[in-house]
Every structure is written in structure tokens, then in C-alpha cells.
Amino acid sequence: MMRLSPPGYAKFSQTNTLELAYGGGEANVAISLAYLGLNACHVTRFPDNLLGRAATQFLRQNWLDTSKVVYGDQRMGQYFLEKGAVHRASEVVYERDHSAFARLKPEMFDWEEILKDADWFHWTGITPAISQGTADACLQAIKVANRLGITVSADVNSRKSLWQYGKTRHEVLPSLIERSDILMASEYDLIDIFQLANDPENSSFKEVVKEVSQKLPRLNKIFDKAREMVSASHHRIQGKMWNGSSVAKTPFLDVTHIVDRVGTGDAYCAGVIFGLLHYKNDQDALRFATAACALKHTVEGDANMVSFENVKGLADGNTSGRIIR
Amino acid sequence: MMRLSPPGYAKFSQTNTLELAYGGGEANVAISLAYLGLNACHVTRFPDNLLGRAATQFLRQNWLDTSKVVYGDQRMGQYFLEKGAVHRASEVVYERDHSAFARLKPEMFDWEEILKDADWFHWTGITPAISQGTADACLQAIKVANRLGITVSADVNSRKSLWQYGKTRHEVLPSLIERSDILMASEYDLIDIFQLANDPENSSFKEVVKEVSQKLPRLNKIFDKAREMVSASHHRIQGKMWNGSSVAKTPFLDVTHIVDRVGTGDAYCAGVIFGLLHYKNDQDALRFATAACALKHTVEGDANMVSFENVKGLADGNTSGRIIR
Amino acid sequence: MMRLSPPGYAKFSQTNTLELAYGGGEANVAISLAYLGLNACHVTRFPDNLLGRAATQFLRQNWLDTSKVVYGDQRMGQYFLEKGAVHRASEVVYERDHSAFARLKPEMFDWEEILKDADWFHWTGITPAISQGTADACLQAIKVANRLGITVSADVNSRKSLWQYGKTRHEVLPSLIERSDILMASEYDLIDIFQLANDPENSSFKEVVKEVSQKLPRLNKIFDKAREMVSASHHRIQGKMWNGSSVAKTPFLDVTHIVDRVGTGDAYCAGVIFGLLHYKNDQDALRFATAACALKHTVEGDANMVSFENVKGLADGNTSGRIIR
Amino acid sequence: MMRLSPPGYAKFSQTNTLELAYGGGEANVAISLAYLGLNACHVTRFPDNLLGRAATQFLRQNWLDTSKVVYGDQRMGQYFLEKGAVHRASEVVYERDHSAFARLKPEMFDWEEILKDADWFHWTGITPAISQGTADACLQAIKVANRLGITVSADVNSRKSLWQYGKTRHEVLPSLIERSDILMASEYDLIDIFQLANDPENSSFKEVVKEVSQKLPRLNKIFDKAREMVSASHHRIQGKMWNGSSVAKTPFLDVTHIVDRVGTGDAYCAGVIFGLLHYKNDQDALRFATAACALKHTVEGDANMVSFENVKGLADGNTSGRIIR
Amino acid sequence: MMRLSPPGYAKFSQTNTLELAYGGGEANVAISLAYLGLNACHVTRFPDNLLGRAATQFLRQNWLDTSKVVYGDQRMGQYFLEKGAVHRASEVVYERDHSAFARLKPEMFDWEEILKDADWFHWTGITPAISQGTADACLQAIKVANRLGITVSADVNSRKSLWQYGKTRHEVLPSLIERSDILMASEYDLIDIFQLANDPENSSFKEVVKEVSQKLPRLNKIFDKAREMVSASHHRIQGKMWNGSSVAKTPFLDVTHIVDRVGTGDAYCAGVIFGLLHYKNDQDALRFATAACALKHTVEGDANMVSFENVKGLADGNTSGRIIR
Amino acid sequence: MMRLSPPGYAKFSQTNTLELAYGGGEANVAISLAYLGLNACHVTRFPDNLLGRAATQFLRQNWLDTSKVVYGDQRMGQYFLEKGAVHRASEVVYERDHSAFARLKPEMFDWEEILKDADWFHWTGITPAISQGTADACLQAIKVANRLGITVSADVNSRKSLWQYGKTRHEVLPSLIERSDILMASEYDLIDIFQLANDPENSSFKEVVKEVSQKLPRLNKIFDKAREMVSASHHRIQGKMWNGSSVAKTPFLDVTHIVDRVGTGDAYCAGVIFGLLHYKNDQDALRFATAACALKHTVEGDANMVSFENVKGLADGNTSGRIIR
Fold it and tell me: What is the pLDDT of residue D75?
């Protein structure tokens, strides 16, 4: 998606220039992984015009393999962001309908070919929420990944309000999730998606993931994070992980001067994926993911453009931000 | 529409900021008339969100009465503009489908109320080209204007490629044009719209307008302009007018250093409307309109933000651009 | 007034671009009320040149009715702002002398006509401080408002140093205040304006307003706020109100990352006016006003461009700044 | 003066940033001379606040000696510039009244001390036009310069409309001009200032300067330039010089793509002064001055920031603008 | 190289922001070819720090394959550009010494591997001018290309002043040129490089290339262009080609409003390469190359970011710059 | 040095504009002293091109005497800064090798002449770390200062990694330090430079300075500061001073919202120098220096552009940042 936002803390009525970047759940995860040092390929559909080309160029600039992007139609998904501060919330308007992405058809992608050299496939709950086409393509990709023995991770965190094409998320997501190995999801998501009987206000993450994991034999681990919002400028972040038997948590990281709050969940997912690939110890992976998430709050734009050294330093407890020279 | 363009002559892939303005045929004409000193009201439909509000604020800032704007849906029409120079053409991508404007319904507007104090109603051929709803609303407005004795002017110049909703321009436009008093149209437009037998390459403006005017008893005058494109940076502009019996032409104005070429046709229309209201002599009106058109090439954005004194000076032959202090 | 400030935290010697906005006590209150959803009209005098037109356009853009602005002379009031942070104070230089506003004469305004449909009239102590002309016009307007039964509110908070035309504030303000229904003033202001015997350092808001209110039979309520300045980047705001018999206070709101501190008092006034019109309960109005004041610290420019929903959310205790999508 | 202008060709209503620079007749000449390699000192009065300091810093940055600037009052002279193109004229609004400069008093400057090491003193007709104080100080400085044997040059070109303090230019300027050695003036200026009987429309430069020079025994040379304004974007410049017996002219230089037209007359004066000091041959000086003037049209801001090599190259006929590497 | 330039026509002393792009002879050619639709790979050495990464990202954004870039050392080649207009020349300062590129060693590149799938190898005379290392690496690459049967093209146009490491261009270039198939060179270059007896001022392109081609049996074609510099803002461009037996020339293309003159020679080379690959007819290739060169003058930055359709349109004679929508 | 940094918190790959300023240890101290009201002269060597001129102009703009700058060579020292926030550290890349400064020779400076009217000479440990030439020139200057009875202050804080020309800091610095009167140094620096036996982790500032001061009879006072880095956005600063017999410390100043952390050590040095010259009481000087250091964190760029009043206010305990109007 094209991201358009007034500079600084201005409102749309206060500006005649907009800052332009590109983002979106899976793209953000891919870029983040590329900055951490992995080869990452983003598969999507862009409009066949100057906007689609510019978006592709943005992904290439940020180290992604874009050879699998397909082109067609004329509209680019967009979102408009007015950045808030302290007690003033950021405001976001999405324009995803009728975009080249929303109109993609499963047959536009040859997943056997696309995934043939891949080690990992990541999807988010936003994709199946956009249209029947994206939901179908996502399911096909996951099935191919399963067949090829590729690890599948899922960030299910899609707001209910996204589902506008006639399906609800508890109709669609379970069949995708049950084919995934790693899950990022809160207890609220899981209760809703799997239509559990638990009372969302009185169920712990542990209770819910325990129950859900019984239904999902393939599932390996479930990650979540706690976010305390002191204000729009100050969040506190904690990583949580269910490893099949117990829940581990990190200490809170205190992000006292937020630069850009968007994409922090995607940064967490990328941290989880990288961490699981890089570390033997799940706890190390969790700390790495939490540090990645915290660092994203200090990076402009949707994607977490920080290096492995940056994240590792914070995961190892160095919160001082001392100048690197 | 929201207009988004890279700064200066940059391409989309060269920038991370976009310049933001708002424009569109009728809005441009209205703003131009407001700068010339008339009271102008823009009637449209905007999305009911921060983009619709910001667009309204832009119109208000540029002196328009926005009390008749209606709100609904979520999408704002957009266009993306890469500015060219010399031999490099500007490129424009439009995103009008599914916008709040495209989805308007005739019953959203009470034209009797809207037009009750108006002296003039102007429409462009873009409006009926967008959707059945806009076409119907346009026709209704014209009919009410006719009933109230309000002068109706039409800029028919809508590219064929705009018509995507199942109707062609020669099916729709004639019934709107025959209820209009003043027409802005080239011989090419007229041959196509009225499906004349004339060969577009070998028919003069005079021949065509003569023939067309016989079919249109209400019609008063037809205006057109010649545009010689030396390059993307240098155009030459001439005004032309059929007054019912003969064709008058102005000398060419030489615009040697184009700042912004968009909206120059709308500036011409505004010049025609203002000129006909202000001058007794048609020839004066034509010169005024041509000068307004030429000046627009030096103003950033879609609309011609110049004063009556600015236009009159050039219409009177002062091409020197001497500093006003 | 034209507001000119270097970008970010730069000093004048560090920049070759200035950010341009417009503001001023009453205009800020009016814009704030317009964003909250009221019809607001700003009455002033601007220079009759491109600066006066641009200022008018700024007000129009921000929803104000500018039909009562009068034009004349050549100078626009200005102020220059260097924004500070933490221990570095912001610096402001005012240039108000000889402006079109300072030179206005009472006879330039027909208050009967201007106020004929109004429900509320608001003035600030800055206006009568500028010149005899502005003081006289302000008094005339208040008298007309009284006659028409329009509520009059006054923000008396004008620095002593403003009074340069030969009168002091205790000579001029009492006769304006005694005709006002709602007052925004601190105990320090009131002691000075009414030349009370109280020791400013040892008198409470309650003691002083009690005494003052005996002299002002028309007066209904007095509002004030406490501002703890932890640093230039961090203030704490509390609303206070005397309702004729007792003093109510809100909890402190902690503004930890100030974006723009200018105009926060005007935002408070607008919150008071809107709150008193909207809520039955004074305490609700006070909470609303305090929230409005706190939010202004996060908005660039002089005026509080936030919606009713924004303010109400904070007044209701939602300090989290959660993204609105 | 502080110069404030919208970026590019925008109008004040189209921008929320202004470009900031400083300029003014004598300052422009001084900066231009400094860039050509001379030691130049600017003597003026600035406000005693952050604006006066920033203006001083601008002059220092541009190589001037600012040790003779005096400070007082609060207002900085300003001008607002909207840049035009082609047929659209630039518009300028001046705000000079009540500035620190306008309020200077002759006794604030010790000219004996200021001029003790100077070789040349230059004044413009703008200075005595501002106030009695500036006129008196200018006359005092010229008298001291005469006494110290310093060459005095005068650019008399002050628009009549500048004179607002009760004196006209033909009352004030003659006594200043008669003490000057070098004059920059057109025949129109001279007829008006010396109240000659010549018809301005039918008198040549030669006729007029011949007559004037008889009244001015001290006068050495009179320089003027012809400016053909093809449009706001394209001027043609010719230098003219009366050397006491005959008039010499340069060929026209064709400035086809004007970047900034302001200060071109000051650049010409600086070229005259430098040329007369540097060249033995008046004709060489004239060519140098004309080239300096033409080059200023390509430099942003008020002052001609070009080197001796830049000017000499053009004076020697190199119009190709070949890249210097 | 990192390209740093003040915005617009500002000088370094007038700005506190610099525009950042990346460029350099071969990179410009490669980017230009990529925009025309070819797969292009840039082989170079960048510093192993954030600057080297950012430069790589720029190349990736502009469609290049950067998998062959090697990293080491700390310094990025740079150049500083002050853009001129009309009679004011642009000024360029280069900082190439001690850069990662200047310090590359031939053994850092495995040309067999790099070129194994290539069809074409292009080098410029700048590379062997920088250091012995770059000269050696260039020769090695050419030899491998010869061995693999890859077409080699050479843009010999390296200024004499570049050669600072102890060799002159006539010592080094001939052995590289004699292994090349296509040459871009003027008669002046050729006389100097091959130390011909011809008088540069009185020898035609035809005479010189005839003579040179006898010494270079491998050589196929020699391209050159004529550039008439009306001013820094207006050039006229003509393509010239020696096909082994005769010289062909295109008409002049008139670039009347130059946006960015840098890299126009590289755009010509890219046009030659693309043209020779795409067209059967040399004359078509020459017209295409000349059009590509002319278009580059309208594109910001070093590289010609225009499409095949853009160039073909101009090569086919469409100079009107009509908006593409 | 030229300082180039992306705007705000952007990374190099996210921007196409860089912010340009100039800085460097001694220059920062000199500018800071000039803003505090002293006459300050910066002695250095700049390249003889447009970059050297622009750097000189920056120094002049910031009130320095630049008459002692010498010019030669082509390269300007540079550094590239990516600004971090919270847990993300700023990153700096230096390019000092081969610069005009690194290549200076002692004989290029006539220190007798340069220092003849000076009261104070300040050097930093960076200068002798760059090259043998700079080390020699620094020593010469100190010797001349000693001879002329000028106070010499030294900020020894040069990172070990700077020393690349074959000498280590403990070989070079002692002979410079023993000729200095005032020292800014931490216990870690001193242990390393004087190769003390103390364990850096278990020695107090007091212990170390006591020992060092015995070796340095000339030495008068040693200043240091404690910096607690809560995060990259929040530091706490404390001043420390050894006056020959005891260590004094200030309370910590809490810099909660850092704007620019670079140059804060230089601001401290300038505060020490000014404080010692201005105050009789060392403790006052220390408080002044600490306040100067804290304030620098709120000023963009390398140098502390704050006034005496700004610093004194904070030194006197006013941390509120109340607007100055």
C-alpha cells in the first residue's frame, strides 16, 4: 500500500505536501527480515502503471526480491495517516477496495514455482480479509508450502472491521491457521476466530492458547505481545510466547518517545521469524522479537529498517542508545 | 479530486514527498471565477472522512461556497501527475472509480434549493462520463437551471477514454448540450458527439460549429482555443469564438516557460464566463478568456488563482510581466 | 497575526525557510469552536493587500465565516517564534504596532448587524491592549451584545507589557469585564486589574474570585487553569472553575511531549464556551475545557484543530492515544 | 530588509512555508562587491532582537563587515515577494515604515570613524526616501566622504511612491547627487529629480545627461541600463554610460530563463563600482557591469553571489554556460 | 558516486539542505538501460558502511542487479554540484581520491563469473583514469568479455584532468579501446588518445574516425554527438555515427529548458547500446540515442529514467510533449 | 567538518535530502563562546574550493573571526549522522583522512601573529589525532601561547580509534597537556593517556586527577561530566571539577527530550571557559558549564547557539522553559 501522511504532527488540512512511503503487513515483515540479513521475497499484485512501478522500486530499494510481483488493474491500495502525540490519537483512513491486490485471482500465482527455494512462508490475517480472491490465493499458497515442507507463520491479527466481502474471519481463518506452524495472536483474536466459549475479559493468554493448541496439532508456538499505552507518545512492550507447554514473557521495554508506531506488530513478527531461525533457545528468540518490536517505534515508515546488531544490542539489554561511531 | 505530484520535475520513483492540491473541472472553473471576484459555489460529493474535510477546506480557502457539498462513502477521486519538460511529456494517472463522486445519486441534491439564487450554471463533460449517477444528476441540474432561467455553460471536452460505465459520449452528451447556452468545444469534439459526417482532419471549426448550431436552437456561442505545442515547456494559445454568425480569433499568446499546464482549459472557461458577464463586447470577452488561459500556465496547481487586474492587463496587451510593487 | 517560525527546533539564524500560519487570541478560539462543530465568525481588520487576503483565506480554510472582516492599511500583525525544548525556552517577538488591526476605528464595524444572529460573543484582553481604537471597538461590541442578550465571555489574560498606547489594563479592563458573563482569569490577573489589596503570593484563586465576583453582578462563572511547567517539553494542566459559590478542579493532565505550546489558553477558552453550551453540568464543561487545552499542546500552529470526539474521549478519561482506524 | 517569498512560483495562499533571505539596495551592492573580492562594510540600523541578529548574521555569512551596524527599536523592514513567470508579473509588498532603519537618527553614526579607511561610499535613492532621519544621515555621510576624498556613487533610482514622509525626491536628492562622483540614473529619473523641461517620452539619455552634467561639476560618469522585458521570464539587458562627453553602449545580453529578477539593478551598480576600480578602460567597466547585471537574473535572492571569474567570463563574451569542473 | 547539490539554482552558501542522489558514468548507463527494459548489472566497489549500503539501495531501486558489488574501505566517491542557468555555468567539485572505488584491486572481481550470462559490457574512460587498480580491473574485464564473445562498448570521453595517478590517457586507453567493438568518442578525444598528427581545430570527425578505425580492426562503429550550447539553459543536440564507411548525422534536437544537464552523455551511450540491440537499422539506433540524450536534459539526477516509449516517441519526431493520460 | 544528516529520524536509505551544517570540536567551542558574547577566532585549514568557502561562510555567520583560516587542497572533512531515538542509537561515519585539515603543515600558521591579541587558546584531543601535521601545529600553537602568557585549555577526550597515522594518544598528548592550564578529561582518559596503574573500573575521578595533577605542575583545574544515558532520547548531565584540592559536583540536569546530542561536550568546554572568565567562584563556573552542556541537547547542529541569558537562567535553577516574550 501507498502510505501518505502529512509531515510531523500536521493534519491533512495543515499541509500541502505529503510524505510518501509504501507498506503493508507482509511487505513490512519481509523488509524487516531483509534488513536483518535474510533473503526475502514479497509476492503481491500491483497496478500496471507508474504507481505499481514506484511501489516495486521501493521494495527493491529495501532489499526485497520483487521478481514474483504480478501486475494488472489500475489502483494501488492506499492509506492516509495523521500522526498523533500524547493524548491525540493517530488517525488512519484505508483505501483498499478495488485495488490491484484486492482483485487478484489465485491463478495469477504459480506457488510451486514461487516457493520452490523458500524456507519460510509468512502470511497475515489482513490478506484473506480483503477479498475472496486474496483469501483463496492465501490458502493455496499455504497448502503448497505445507506440501513442500516449508515452515508457515501467521499473524492473525486482523481487525474485524476489515472483513467486508461477505465472509467473517471465523469462517475463513481457521482453515488457514490449522495449516500454519507458528502463530502470532492474542487471546482476544483466538477466542473470536475459534468462537471459544471463554469470556475475553476473564481469560488469560495461557488458558486460551492451551485450549486452541489442542485443536491445532500442527501448531508449534504462539506468540503475542502486551502493549501498555501510556499515551500516543509512550508505549511499553512485552513479548509473550506459548511453546506448547508453558508461557514465557520478557520484561517490558519502555518506548518513551515514539517516532512511528505503525508496523510495530509486523516488526515483532519479523523478529519472531528471525529469532526462531537464528537462536536455538526460544527465550532468546522472544527477547529478540520484543527488541525488534520496540526498535520499530523509533523508525519512520512502516518497516523496521534496523540491523541485526541494532536488535541484538537491545535484546541483550543495552537500552542506552549510545552513539555508534 | 486530490492531486498528488512529485516536486518539480521529479518522477514518482525519485521522491518521498508528494505535493498535494485539489482540483477538477468544475471546481477549477469555480475557483478561478472566485479569484476574479464572483461568488462561486461548488456542488459535489466528497467522502465522509478526513480527506473529504480537507478537500472542502481547500475549496473554502479558495473562496468557494461549500455549503452545498454532500458527504458519503470513503473514497476521494485522485490523480497522480508527473510533470514533464521540453520533449518529456507529463504523465497523469486517474483514480476516479468508486469515489464518493462517482457514487453520487441524483436524489442527493435539491437543485431547486441549490440554484435558487444563482445566475449561471457550468458543467463539464467529465461529470456525465463518470457514472450513470453523475450523468443523471448533471441533467437534472441543467433542467432546473433552464426552468429558473439561469444561463448554462458547458465544457464538453471530455476524452473518450473516460466513458467506462457503459454509455458513450454521443449517447449522453447531446441531451445535455442542447439545454446549454454557451459551449466550449472543438470541432473534433463536436463531430464525435453529434456523430457528424465531417472528416475531422478536413473540417474547419467554422464549418462544424455552423452545422452544429443549427441543431441547437438554444445555443448562443461556441468557444474553442487553438494550442500549438512547441514542447511541454512552451505552448502558444489562441482563442476562437463562434457568435452565431461568424468566427472571431485572438492573436496567439506565447507561453514560453510553462509552470503548470493542468487546468488551462478550465481557466479558459472561467475567462469566457467572466468575460461574457463583464464585457458588452464578445471580442473583449474572448480576449479576456484567452489571457486567463495563458496566465494559468504560470500558476501552480489546477486552478487559476489570478485576479481580474492580472487578466485584464494581459488581455489589454501587456505581456511584459513587469513587477507590481 | 501572521506567525513565522523556523522549522522544528531551529533558530532564526539556522534556517532559510519559515513556517507560516496565522493566529491570534480570538481567531484561535473561533477556529477551535468551528472544529468542534459550531458556526463561528471572526471579526477583525486586515490589510488590504495580498497578506490580508491570505490571512482571510487561512480563516476560511479553517471553517470561519470571514464576511465581517474589514480591510484597510498595509501592515499585518506578526509574531516570530523560535520553538524551545526541555530547558530551552521558546522565544517570541511580536510586531503588532501600526497594523491594520491596531489602526481600526470603532466606526468601521456595525455591531448590530454583525451580532444580529449570534448566540455568544468572546473577547480577549489583548484586543483592548493594542490601541485606543481596538479598546473602544471592543467596548462597543460588548455593549451591543449586552443589549441583544448575547452571552459575553472574556479571557482577560493580557500581559501588562502589551499596554503601550498610554492606558493601563486596570484603567480599561474593568468596564469591559463588568459587562461580561463568563470570565477566564487567574487570581494574579484579577488582583492587578481590580487593584485588590490581596497579596498575589498569598491569596488563593478562591479568595480572589469571591471578592471580585461581589463587584461584578453580571458575572456568572470564572475559569482558570493551573499549569505546572516541568520543562518546555512537558507541562501538567489542571482546570479550575468558580461557579459563584465554590471552586471545582479537575485532575492534572500530563502533557509529556509538547508539540506546540502556543494557543493552549485559547483552546481552553474554546473548551469552556463549547462545554457550557453543550453540557448541562458545569463539571463536565470544565473537564471538556481542560481536555481541549491539553490536546492543543499536540497540534501544530496556534489553533486547536481537534474534533468534538477527540476532546470528549480525553475528557472521559481515555489518555491512551490509541490509533483511530 | 527581510525578504519573505513562497517557494517557486506559488502564491501566498498556496504555501505554508516562506523562503527567508535578507536584502536591500546598499546591502545587495555590498554583498556583490564582497563576492567579487573587495572588502565591503554595510552600515545600517537593525532592531535589537533576534531578527536584527539574524539579519546581521546573513550579512556576515555573505562576507560583509558588520561592525558598524547599530541596533535599536523592534521592527525589521520587510518585503513580501510572489514570483511571477511569463505574463504573470511578480508582486511585491513592502513594509518599511516604523522599522529600526526608518527610525535611525544621524547622530547614531560617527561617519568620520566609519569611513576613515574607506575608498568608496555608495548610497541609493531609497535611503533618503524612507524618513527625514535616513535622508539626513545619508547627507552627513556623503559630506564626510567628500571631506575625506572618498569616491561617492549614487544609484538614484527610487520610485516616487516611496516618498511618504512629507518630502519629494526633487526636494531632497539634488543636494545629495551634487556631492556624488558617479551616478546610476535613467533619463526619466533625472528629468524628474532635476525638474527638467525635457519631455520624458521624447528625450534621449544622451540629451538629458548632457544637460544634467552641466549642473553637477563634481559628476564624473553616469551609468544606466536598458531593459527589454519580453516577459517576466525573459529580459534583455544593455549597459549605457555617459563619460562626460559621449554615450557608450554594450550589446544586449539575452536572459532567457530568469531565476530571480530582484536586485539586478544593484548588481549593475556593484559591477560599475568594481569595474571602475579594476579596469583602466571605461568600456571594460561597462561590459563588466552589464555582465554582472545579467548574471544576477540567475541567482536566487537579492544579492549577486557570483565571482569575478563568473562575471569576467560573460563580459568577455562567453555566453555558453559550460559546466566548470 | 554520491551526488550532493543545493536545491534549485541555489549556491552552497545559500542552503542548509542538499539533494542527494547517486551516479557515475557506468551506473548511469546501466540505470538508463534498465528503464528502457533491459536487465542491467552494475559492477563496482562501495565502502563497507551506511553510505555503501545506501548507494547500493539506490541502484537496486533503479532496477539494477547489485549482486556483483564488492565492499571495502570507508570512503564513497562524491561530487558536489551547483546548478547554473542561462549565462551562469554549473560548477562541479569531484572527490574521488581514496574512495573504495579508487582503491579496488583487479583480484576483487571474478569476471568469468560476473560476465558469464552477459551480452554486453560497457566501460567509460573515467574508470581507468582513477587509479592503476581501476585501470587494471577494466582491462581484465574487457579481456574476459572478448574471450566470452561479449560485445564491448566504450565511452572514452574522460577529461585529461582526471588522470592523476601517474599515467596519461594515451598511455592507458589505446589498449582498452582496441579490444572494444563500439566507441563513443569525439575527434578531439581520438586525436589526443591516439596521438594523431591531425590539428584538432581543423580536422573533421570523419577524417579522424577514418584514420583511427584503420588502427582498430575490431572496431565496428564510432558514435559522437554535437552539442551547441546556446546557454546553460538551452542546448542543441545532434547525433553522429561512423559505421565503418560513412558518417551519418541526425537533425538537431532543441532542448530549450534544461532541467539537469549531468549524465546526458551517459544517456546517449545507453541509447546507442539499446538502439543497436533493438533496431536493425543503424540510423534508427542513432536517432534513438540522440532522443535519449535529449530527454535526459529534462530528468533530475544523473541517470535517464525514461521509458522506451518516451524515447521512441521523440525519436519518431514527436517533440510536442503532449500530456500522457 | 561538513555534517550531513537525513532529516528527523530518517535513515540514509529513506531520504533524498540531507541537512547540511558544519562543525568540529574547536569550531563548536568557538561558536558557542561567540554566542555567549566573546570574540572568538577559529584557526583551521579548509579546501580551496566552493566547499571551503561555504564552510568559512558558516563560521562567519556564527560570529567567528575567520581571518586566520588558510586554504589549500580539495577535500573537506565530513561526517554523516543518522539520528537515533530511544533505544536506537545514532550512527556516525567520519571521513577525515586526506582532508585539507589533515594535510596542514605547521609552517602554514604564524602563531605569534595569530595569538598576539588573544586571551585564551583552546585545543581538543581530536586535532593531534588526525595527522603528524596537525599534532605538530597544535604543539607549536601551545608553545607560543605559553610564551605569550595566554591561558591554554584542553579537551583531551579523543577516542582511541581516531589515532590512525602511527602514533598513539599516550605518545602524543602528554607533552601537549603538560603545557595546558585547564583540562577537560575523564578518569578513563587520564588513566590511558598517562598510562596510570589505576584500574579504570575501580578508580574514582578524584583519585585519578589527584595523581595526574602531581605530574602536571602547570595544571590548574580539571573538569569532567557524568552522563547517564537513560536512552538516546533522555540523558542526565552532571558537572564535575577538581580545583587542585577537592572535587565539586553539580546536581544532575535531566534532559528528557534530546533534540541533538552532538557537540554537547564542546558546549561544556565553552561553558567552562566562559564561566572561568566570567565568574569569580569556580562553583558558579561549573554550574554555568553544566547548564550550557544541557542546553546544547536542545539545539540542532553541532554548536551551542544559546545566549548568556539562556545559560545563566538554567544555571540559576530555572528549568521551566517558560516562553520568553
Answer: 95
Q: Name the closest residue on chain C to residue A232, using Cα atoms.
A: C321
Residue type, E6: P
Summarised one tens digit per residue, pLDDT across range C74-116 is: 999 999 999 999 999 999 999 999 999 999 999 999 999 999 9
Q: What is the pLDDT of residue E161?
A: 81
β-strands D120-124, D91-95: how paired? unpaired
User: Which cell numbers in the block locate residue E86?
Assistant: 542561462
| Domain ranges within chain E, ordered by starting residue | 2-315
Q: Which residues of C touch B (CB under 8 A)?
A: 57-58, 60-63
Domain at B2-315: CATH code: 3.40.1190.20
pLDDT band at B246 (very low <50, low <70, confident <90, very high): very high
DSSP secondary structure, E252-320, as one string: PEEE-S-S--TTHHHHHHHHHHHHHHH-SSHHHHHHHHHHHHHHHTTSSSSS----HHHHHHHHTT--S
CB–CB contact C85 F257 (8 Å)? yes
> Is C239:C247 a contact under the CB 8 Å cutoff?
no
Pair F234, F256: CB distance under 8 Å: yes
Q: What is the least distance, in Å, from the CA of A296 to any CA of chain F?
A: 9
Q: Give the pLDDT of chain F (325 residues) as one tens digit per residue.
A: 999 999 999 999 999 999 999 999 999 999 999 999 999 999 999 999 999 999 999 999 999 999 999 999 999 999 999 999 999 999 999 999 999 999 999 999 999 999 999 999 999 999 999 999 999 999 999 999 999 999 999 999 778 888 999 999 999 999 999 999 999 999 999 999 999 999 988 999 999 999 999 999 999 999 999 999 999 999 999 999 999 999 999 999 999 999 999 999 999 999 999 999 999 999 999 999 999 999 999 999 999 999 999 999 999 999 999 999 8
Average pLDDT over residues A173-194: 96
In this model, does residue A198 exceed pLDDT 80?
yes
Cα-Cα-Cα-Cα dihedral sign, residues C28, C34, C35, C38: positive
Residues of chain D contacting A12 with CB distance shorter than 8 Å: none
Question: Which chains, if any, share at least 3 CB pairs under 8 A with chain F?
Answer: A, B, C, D, E
Residue-wise DSSP of A263-324: THHHHHHHHHHHHHHH-SSHHHHHHHHHHHHHHHTTSSSSS----HHHHHHHHTT--S-PPB
Q: Which residue of A has its CA nearest to D15?
A: A16
Task: Using an 8 Å CB-CB cutoff, list chain F residues near D63.
Answer: 57, 60
Query: Taking CB atoms and an 8 Å limit, are E323 and B9 in contact across chains?
Result: no
Partner residue opposite B20 with nearest CB, options A18, A51, A93: A18
Position D157 confidence tier, pLDDT thresholds 50, 70, 90: confident
Nearest CA to F323 among E300, C313, C263? Answer: C263
Interface list for chain A against chain F, based on CB atoms closer than 8 Å:
21, 61-62, 253, 255-259, 291, 294-295, 297-301, 305-306, 310, 313-314, 319-325
Q: Which residue out of F3, F9, F299 would a mutagenesis test of the C interface target, given it has the greatest number of C Cβ atoms within 10 Å? A: F299
Q: Which of C285, C312, C317, C311 is nearest to C298 (CA)?
A: C311
**Which of chain E's residues have a Cβ under 8 Å away from the Cβ of A58?**
61
% of chain E surpassing 70 pLDDT = 100
Name the residue in chain B with its Cα closest to that of D229: B320
Identify the contact set of chain E against chain D, taking CB-CB distances under 8 A: 8-11, 13-14, 84-94, 159, 161, 229-234, 257, 261
Task: Give pLDDT tens digits for B31-53.
Answer: 999 999 999 999 999 999 999 99
Instruction: Give the chain B residue whose CA is nearest to the CA of C67.
Output: B63
Residues of D with CB under 8 A from a CB of A: 14-16
Residue type, D272: V
Q: Is B70 helix (H, G, I), strand (E, B) or coil?
A: strand
